[in-house]
Write a structure and sequence with these properties.
The chain contains 6 helices and no strands. Pfam families: PTR2 (PF00854).
């Protein structure tokens, strides 16, 4: 039995999906530890901030989907979302003891997720005609990519939050986003444009 080949652009979308989940679940694994051990937040404040962050990451894609449908298109929304997530991680890694930069970085990351999360699946869907038999396989690859990214990050991070935690994890995570984003932009011209 021969497996049908997928459009070339799917592999870039899948790679970016891996890094997005890698980033999100890594942040979930360490954010409270960073807030309490590095910034000295009390447990209630740290849990409240984490809860707000996690909630907004799941609510903002509603607005991101609306913006993509009405103004931006899926490709532009995904690119803008990836860029914002990258910028947010870089800002988070720059000043490790500033609560202002923490809140600013989290706000930027949340806006990035809002644009990215709801539109990456739509961008993938645009690669196929409506009755293309490869479509299910493409969405299965995207789903698998999310699982790979979510499993890989928390297993590699250890709960020992140190003074150099931000420099050792968030800055490299931001730079990985930059690399994947630049690679994505180089190949984005092969992706379909929002009609």
């Amino acid at each position: 039995m021969k497996t049908p080949s997928q459009p070339r652009a799917i592999y870039y979308i899948v790679a970016i999906q891996i890094w997005e989940y890698f980033s999100f679940y890594g942040m979930r694994a360490l954010l409270i530890l960073y807030l309490t051990h590095q910034l000295g937040f009390d447990d209630n404040h740290a849990i409240s901030l984490f809860s707000a962050y996690a909630s907004l990451v799941y609510v903002t894609p509603i607005l991101g989907g609306w913006l993509a449908d009405r103004l931006l298109g899926n490709r532009t929304a995904v690119i803008a979302g990836a860029l914002l997530m990258t910028l947010g991680h870089v800002v988070l890694g720059i000043d490790t003891n500033s609560t202002f930069s923490l809140y600013l970085a989290l706000a930027i990351i949340i806006c990035g997720y809002g644009l990215f999360k709801s539109n990456i699946s739509c961008l993938l869907g645009e690669l196929y005609d409506e009755n293309d038999h490869r479509r299910d396989g493409g969405f299965s690859l995207l789903y698998a990519a999310g699982n790979i990214g979510s499993i890989a990050r928390p297993n590699r991070l250890r709960p020992g939050c140190s003074v150099v935690w931000m420099a050792c994890w968030l800055c490299p995570c931001g730079w990985r986003h930059v690399y994947r984003f630049v690679d994505f932009l180089k190949r984005a011209s092969s992706f379909p444009v929002h009609a």
